[in-house]
């Protein structure tokens, strides 16, 4: 009897191995990349240059997706934990799949789905179907786009044993394992336990570069008398050091062109110029020649900025003293010229309408202008979001109706900022963190909730680490730990 059992077991293992070999031939890594081209085109961060929140979410989700795809191609890799991903999709076609879907403030479709497949083909199909993208082109890759269980080949069909077989032999039922994995949600403790060693290794490796980055930033800021040096995107430490070295070489070669940067903030980003917030933008793909032109044009930029501030003041006077502001974290990345055109168009429309706002009746309130909206709204932080195409009569009614609520929201915002800072300081001290920060897309209310729950836990894993509060779990290339603000216990 036991000899028969061993033979059955050997036969089972051989057929499973044969199935895995055949399945691995179904779609190669290169084929998977080609098949996912429509997906990459719809979600790639480079296409979200004017929408920092959506770009950052897609950037982090792509890193986790690439890690999942790489693991699928590793020989003998068996640990397939369900991975939940969120992407903002540029297409606006109706979605027919069973995924969570919503729309961001910028109008992009937000799609959330969980990957739990064990082969490249099924994973690619899941991704495309979840984002409502066509899968017809996969047929041209000479692969079978039907799930393995529906294949006609007897050899390539998984063996489906009766439940009594698993009870008798002690083998694990793969279907039961998959169902259990789908039911189990990642918890903070289990994730930290699994990823602590990897994060520590990456963090230790990055420490010399982190010190180099601090040194370069301090020296350049002091030499050029800059207010700050920032990065718009979450580039790695090595990439940031390279950008500062490049700026340092320009300082040595052409010191005369940088005489007008005193007191300014330099931001490394995707485009060069001056931002709507008045910061000097240096495009990371541009060469020194382009940077030199930007520095030479600074006097003209400063003149335009004065005209822009005057325009903001004129709009404020027409709207009862409400302050016109620009919020980098929430608004699209605009150049100074683009923002000036937006303000000028809105001002001319207001001036012609002659709205009867009492002078200084709305003093203390704030508003931002956006060109990709059609209806005014009130943000939870207390500022009004006003479309540039908004009808003046609708604008007047909305501001009057929401003025008191806006003042209350602004007051709560100030209270939340104080509470948030206190909780960050307390959490940093309790867990001996080297740094605790959040992504721009995480609100103060979410950060407060996250920190309060963290302080109730005992987390020795975090000592000396860099912890980022985000929307998902991830270990960044330099060892920073990212956890979702609404982590599960």
Task: Tell me what the structure shows.
- The two termini are 47 Å apart.
- Helix 8 packs parallel to helix 9 (237-253).
- The model is unreliable at 1-11, 13-25, 92-101 and 144-157 (pLDDT under 50).
- It is globular, with a radius of gyration of 27 Å.
- The relative contact order is 0.09.
- Strand 14 (474-475) and strand 15 form a beta hairpin.
- The chain has helices at 2-26, 29-35, 37-43, 52-72, 120-130, 163-169, 174-183, 188-224, 237-253, 288-296, 298-318, 336-353, 392-430, 444-454, and strands at residues 83-89, 100-103, 109-115, 228-231, 265-269, 273-274, 280-283, 323-324, 366-370, 377-378, 384-387, 435-438, 466-470, 474-475, 481-484.
- With 489 residues, the chain is α/β, with parallel strands linked by helices.
Tell me the strand percentage band.
5-15%
Largest sheet: 4 strands, mixed
User: Secondary-structure element sequence?
Assistant: HHHHEEEHHHHEHEEEHHEHEEEHEHEEE
Shape: globular
Proportion of residues in helical segments: 40-55%
Stretches with pLDDT under 50, minimum 5 residues: 1-11, 13-25, 92-101, 144-157
Number of DSSP-assigned strands: 15
The number of helical runs is 14
Mean pLDDT: 81
Radius of gyration: 27 Å
Order of strands, main sheet, comes to 4-5-7-6
User: By helix and strand content, what is the structural category?
Assistant: alpha/beta
Separation of the first and last Cα atoms: 47 Å
